[in-house]
Each structure stands twice: as structure tokens, then as C-alpha cells.
TrEMBL record:
InterPro entries: Glutamyl_endopeptidase, Peptidase_S1_PA, Peptidase_S1_PA_chymotrypsin. Residues 132-141 have a biased composition (Basic and acidic residues). This is Secreted protein. The keyword Signal applies. Gene3D superfamilies: Trypsin-like serine proteases. Residues 25-59, 105-141 are annotated as: Disordered. SUPFAM superfamilies: Trypsin-like serine proteases. PROSITE patterns: PROKAR_LIPOPROTEIN (PS51257). Coiled coil: none annotated. It comes from Streptomyces cavernicola. Residues 1-23 form the signal peptide. Keywords: Signal.
Amino acid sequence: MRSIRPALAAASLAVALALTATACQSAGDPKADAKPTASASKGGDSGADEAQLPDDLDGIADRLKEHGIDVDKWKNGEWKNWDKDKWLREAKDFANPVIKGLWSEERKKSAKDPQQTISSKAAAGNEGVTDPEPRPVRAEQERKPYWKYAAPVGKIFFDTPEGTAVCSGTVVKDPRNPGKSNLVWTAGHCVHAGQKGGWYRNIVFTPAYNHKGLSARALESAGPQDKAPYGEFWADWISTSNEWIDGTTAASPDAGSYEYDYAVLHVKPERGNKSLEETIGTALPVDFSSPSPKSVDAMGAWGYPQAPPYDGALMHKCVDRPGRLSLTPSSPTMYRIGCTMTAGSSGGGWFRSTGGGKLALVSNTSIGPAGSNGWLAGPQLGDGAKRVFDTMSEKYGSK
């Protein structure tokens, strides 16, 4: 029974994602079957060539100044200073000034995922709470072009003390700003170092990255329209859980609170003034009901795996029936599915069918097993995740 039902669910889930993206795009664009236009690649109206993101959104300069940081020096390279007193940590201190031209293709190419893994012993969990380890499900490439079948999925690039890094993310609906969402869902470890440090820097989102699905070699000589069909979107505010920042549920000092490993980005285009949802033509709702794994036939994870045997160029997906993974007795269980995607897929959305051919984001990729790539786990999104999301939507959604 297990070998048949997930296969059927996988097919229906993949079709649902395609229909969701295409239907939403068609609703606002009579030429939805055509590739993104040059104006779309700039993130706004044709001719809007100047950056529209304010230099001092919500007091970026003031927040940096409080820590003895000059915003002009920051843009000229001071951001590379990761000294403890310069590494902003608290939720209220997030700052991400736009640095034009920073994200060259060379920097993107060198980006690595801040890999999060746990040992097989830790994954064994508590008897009766952790389900048996799932069999590996081989990741499949998404159909091309991505903008037509999975436009909400993209790559997140950022800087860490160890160098450039990359994760995956998903454009999600903002109920307080219908049709004009600027919200992106990802993992907490893709934006903040947790108990080991502070906020990462120079965080940008590229929806439908490499939408033609070019090989890594072909991508090197491809034009900007192929690499970033909708342009770049800089995070101007981010919210993640206090549990992730403080590591309050971590099983060890070197681990993170993976059960709360989620984050929401509010973004603005580097060029133009259209919202993210208007630019790509679609977004997906978030499901905060934390459905029991036993009640869900299948969940699908989407992302851009970077670590071998993958190279980060192509979007992949896995679909499987979820099980439970418990890391500590006092924390919520996580979802776990079989999947061969590797580092780089972190933060990518997990989806489930909510009926009528519709999908909702229900989790995100957080961790995998150390030394192998047979499964992925993600947090259940309950009341705490909803509070993080609602705060972002209410305070920053309309900006």
C-alpha cells in the first residue's frame, strides 16, 4: 500500500503545483504562456531602471549606528567585519542595506548551503514518537520553464562569516495585502546563525532562478534574463522564531532549535516598484494547522540542491508520505519524508494538497542525516509560526 499511494499522490501534487502557478499567472496576465518580459526581469514597470528600495527603510542607518556602524562604510565593505560586537543578533536589530552590483554571478556560483545535519542516533528519537526512517525517494527535476510550473520557488543568496551561502525559498500569499505579497518563506538557519551568532547579511531572493533549467556550464554564459527572469529582491525585514535565535530547544550546544527553524522575509525589488507577487504572477498560501502526518497522504518538498551529486543549477522536488521525527522529548515533532535532495534545498517549501487541486505551504526543509542524503525533515507550522508570519504581515506587509 505504501509503495502505491505516495506514487499517486506525487503525481497529483506535482500537477497541482503546475496548475496553481499557471492559473494564478493567467488570471492577471493574458500572455501567461509567454516567457517573462524584460520589464519583468527588472522587477517592475518597463523603464523603471532606478533602484526603488529606500536607503534607510525603517531606520536601517540608525540601527547600524547604534552599534557603531556607519551605513556608507558598511556598503563599502564594512559588512565583511564579523566581529562579535558588529554581528547584529537580536530580532530588532536586523539590517540589510542594498549594495548595488554585489551579487555577481561569480559570487553566486561560489555560494554554499549552511548545511544542517543530525546523527543517525539523534534521529532515532524516542520510541513511539519518531517513526521508522523512510526509504529514500529520488529527487526529480522540475519541469521547465520554472516560471510556468513553479514560479513561487527560488534561491536565496546571503553572506556568512564562512563566505557566500545559498538556500531555497517560496513566495507566499499575504492575506493583508491580497495580490501584492512581498513575503518569502524559508528556514531560520538561512537568515540567522541561531545561538552561535547573528543575522546573515546581503540577503536576496531570486524567484524561478535559471528558469530554463540550463546546465551549470551553460548557465555560466547565459544572460541575466535566463538566470534571474524576474530580477533580484532584497530582504528589507526578516522575522524568525525566538527559539531559533536563542536555541532554547537545541539538543546540544552545537545544534539548533530545528523544530522552530522557519523564517519570513519581506522583500523589495532591486529595480522597479511592483510587488513580488505581481511580478511573478502567483503566490501560495501557508497552512498553520499542523496536520498530523497520519492524516496526510503526501507532502512535496521543492528546492535547489547544491551539494553533490547536485550542483545548485536545477530545481528539484520530492514527494512522499510524511512521518514523525522527534529530537527532544519536550519539543514538537517534525515532519520527515524520504528525499535525496542535499544542502542548498534548505528553506525550500513543503506543500500539501488542501483539496480542489489547491496547494498550501505546510513546512520547509530544515535538516537531513549526516553522511547521507536519504531523507529531509521540516518543522510543523503551528501557532508560533503563525505569530511570526502575522507580525511580519501586519507591520511590514504593505510597505
